[in-house]
Amino acid sequence: MGYSKKYLPLFLGLALGAGVFLGSKLDFNDPSAKLFSYNAKKEKLNRLIDYIDYEYVDEINTDSIVEVTVNRILENLDPHSVYISPEELEGITESMQGDFIGIGVSYYPYRDTISVINTIKGGPSEKSGIKAGDRILMADRDTLFGANLVREGLANKLKGELNSQVQLKVYRKGKGVFDVMVKRGRVPLQSVDASYLLTDELGYIKVNRFAETTYKEFKTALDDLIDEGVTDLVIDLRDNGGGFIAPALKMADEFLEDDVLIMFTKNKKGAIEENYATRKGSFEKGKVYVLINENSASASEIFAGAIQDNDRGIIVGRRSYGKGLVQREMSLGDGSAIRLTISRYYTPTGRSIQKPYGNGNKQYFNEYLERYKNGELQNADSIQVADSLKFKTPKGKIVYGGGGIIPDIFVSKDTTRIGETLDYMLRSGRMGGYIFEELDKNRMYYNGLSEESFQQEVNVDDTFAEGFLKYARRRGIEIELKNYREQLKKYLKATMAQQLFGTDVFEKIINKDDAMINKVVSISEEKE
């Protein structure tokens, strides 16, 4: 149980990510808005801040007082109404836009040097000849190496205006130090991690979040799979914490017939806004399987709920997170913002999947531990449902509201300490340092591999796995594998593939022997 608490932020991180946004941003600086007209309560707060600012005995930063006040106010509303500082807002906005202006490399500080893990395909650095394993020593006049390397500001030194140039000083084994001029460009932050064939007829697409570019990425992947002849499709939304609602609606539209209800929202005044399928979808006839787990939230639940409630496909996995509150981002005029819950969303049958939050935020965010304790992650019969929240789909299937999307087919989770430790180390990037060092020993060979030759030639054996365990021990991480050595080998090879080829090959390797995917494959092969 101590282990689960320790790593709770990992399990819930994605589910508390972007949230769901509707409508345009509200301008707090509009003097004509009745919403912000004078009232005594607001004036009381203003006077208090002024008194402290001008009369308090000690010098104090009243900006910090305001932030504390805003946070305390929002904490008393609901778990998803939150304050976003100017620094946080910049990163969140960039992530949800789906791209940024930069040089197009993945890197991390390694031995006080910026080391390139890989270059973004088709990006500025790849076009300029930067390769995996290169060390970036300087960007114009900024030094990017040394014991006093400040990691927090590195990204800003590599970013800049679109089409602006930056001169990099680079070190490469076997070549030494040389200069490269790179023209900054748009670098995609992909939200579709993988798209490939599981069988000749069954395609697979994994979506990690719902950003502005997600639908475009998804549609490209879907069209490619259709061209390859897929008749059935798996949409993997595991650990997808949501994001913008529009891409989720457009994705659902690809699978639903015209004028079918996708979802609706209701605000405190009872006003209802409905969203229907509109266009002729690309995949309205084939079988659809949606994978979800306890970290699938928000827009992921909208999509899964629309598929389930319209009897359009089969939901496989474990009960989703249970976030059915809709937020709107509102500027506070100083670069900061709040996300304020403005309504609730409902699936087509009329069920709310928002889990209860009346007992406070702490219990709300610790709900994963309750699922762990009551056995829900291992047994579908442990999922608590209420008859009062029972709904029927058009074909008569029983579905439930009250906290997440309950799958049609349940697949249990490996909750052993060893299994969860390995998953944590994989998804948190803890294996990346070891893999980088191993690749760096023979960089020319590894950089010359194709995906096919990598799969055939590279063997992660016991010696390689033991090397990682020693690497982990030196960093205070002790793992007793017992029956998990083969899983460790698979994870190490997947991490190697990610650094060499990207997320698509990573997911192909990770998904081998995946319980949910194996379940779907077996179902899809049962011909009616």
From TrEMBL:
Pfam families on file: PDZ_2, Peptidase_S41
Record-annotated PDZ domain positions: 99-174
SUPFAM superfamilies, sorted: ClpP/crotonase, PDZ domain-like
Molecular function, one GO term: serine-type peptidase activity
Homology family: Belongs to the peptidase S41A family.
Keywords: Hydrolase, Protease, Serine protease
Domain Tail specific protease per the UniProt entry, residue ranges: 175-356
GO biological process: proteolysis; signal transduction
A Gene Ontology cellular-component term: outer membrane-bounded periplasmic space
Full protein name: PDZ domain-containing protein
UniProt signal peptide: none
UniProt keyword annotation of Secreted present: no
